[in-house]
Amino acid sequence: MADTKVPRLRRSMLITPGDRAERLARAAALPADSLVFDLEDGVGAKQKPAARACIAEALRTLDFGGRERLVRTNAASTPDLEADLAALPLGHLDAIFLPKAESPSDVQRLAAWLDANEPRAAPARPIDIVVSIETPRGLLQALAIADASPRISALFFGSGDYSVATGSAVTERSLAVPRSLIVAAASAAGLQAIDAAYFASVKDADATRTDALVAKELGFCGKLLFHPNQIAVCNEVFSPSPAEIARALAIIAAWDAAQKAGHGTAVADGQFIAVDIALMAERTLAVARQAGLLRP
To answer: How far is Cα 124 from Cα 106, in angstroms, rounded to an integer?
Structure first.
C-alpha cells in the first residue's frame, strides 16, 4: 500500500483538463510537484471518452521528469467511474484523485478495483488514492473516509462544491472550520491534507500566496492549482524558509543533547523544547530534504 512513512512532496498540484493534448504536454513540463489530469468537472460530458484516450496517451508518452502523475476520475456515485478506470494505464500512474467522496464505501470500491487490477500493470509503487472531500456529508464523515483504505495518502478539501452546498462565502473566515476539520481528519489518520485551489483570481500570484500562507498555518502541506502562475508561490510557501530550517536544526541539536544527558526537555535560543516541538522540527527538516533545501 501507500508508503505513509515518506509522504510525497505535494506543495503544488496542478490540475489540467484531460481533453486537450497540448495542454497536458505543457503541464508535464511545469515545475509543479504533482500533475492532476482531469476527467471530472473540467471535461464536458460529451468529451469524456476523448479525454480518457488523451490522458492515457499522455501518461504513456510524456516525460514527467519524476513529477507525480494523478488522474481525477469522476465520482464513485456516477456511472463514469468504471469507464474512467478501464481507460487508465496503471503502470504509468502514481495516484488516483477521487472526487466528492461521502462515505468509506466510495473509497473502498476504488481500492478493491485497484487491488484486482494493479498486479497486471506492475506500477513502480502501489497506486495511492487522494480523496476529495467536497460536501457537508463528506466533511462529517471525513475521519471514517480517511480510515477507509491504506491506499489513501491524502485528503483534499474542495471548497467550491462545499460552498455551493452550504451557501457559505468562499472566504478565509467562512472556510476556517471545514479546512481545520479536514486537517484534523487527515492528521488523525496519518495522511497529508491538501487545500482547495485559490480561484478568485488565478493569475494573481500575490493573492495565491496570501491564501497559501493561511493554508500552511492551518496545517495543509500544499494546494491544488488552476494556473501555472500559482506554482512558484506555492512551492515557496509550503517549503521551509532558511530561517525555519536553521531554527529546526538548532531545536534538534538541543533536543539530542538533552536526550543524551538524560533530560526530557531542552532550551534553544530561549525557547522551551519538549518532544512535541522536536517532532515539529523533524517534520520541517524532512520537508526541506524532500524539497532539496537540505542535504539528506
So the answer is: 25
